[in-house]
What we know:
Layout: E1 2-15, E2 18-23, E3 26-32, H1 39-51, E4 55-56, E5 62-64, H2 66-69, E6 72-77, H3 99-115, E7 119-122, E8 130-144
Parallel strand pairs: 3-6, 6-7
Antiparallel strand pairs: 1-2, 1-3, 1-8, 4-5
Helix pairs in contact: 1-3
Amino acid sequence: MRAVLQRVHQASVSIQGRVTGAIGRGLLVFLGIAADDTEQDMQYIASKIIGLRAFEDQAGKMNLCLRDIDGSILVVSQFTLYADCRRGRRPSFTDAARPEQARCWYERFVARLREHGLTVQTGSFREMMDVSLINDGPVTFLLDSRRLF
Length: 149
């Protein structure tokens, strides 16, 4: 499982001009799911996001997590995080989970975040979405459950 986290002042996702999810200060999470992901992969990424100290304290150091700032999360599924662009010019998506499998993991991931009392908004799975955000920093983090980066 992979995630790209953007620290934001605000973020939203819309489909055909209608906003389906929006947050204020917090994290925009683009989530990619691999064909061979397991419960352990999902737990690792969720745990990292829940406890990640990505927000500055009064001294300007990244010491605060989402709970500390009463922040929110916007989760958007993004299978292209598993694109393999090493050969040719057309990306290969063979490592990405099939849609039915990915939807299940996506929903479990969102539920896991909510179980921890976080405010979570979502995009719509398998829909073309317009994502808007105002970066805070900008600050971006890459997470991979296999710890490849």
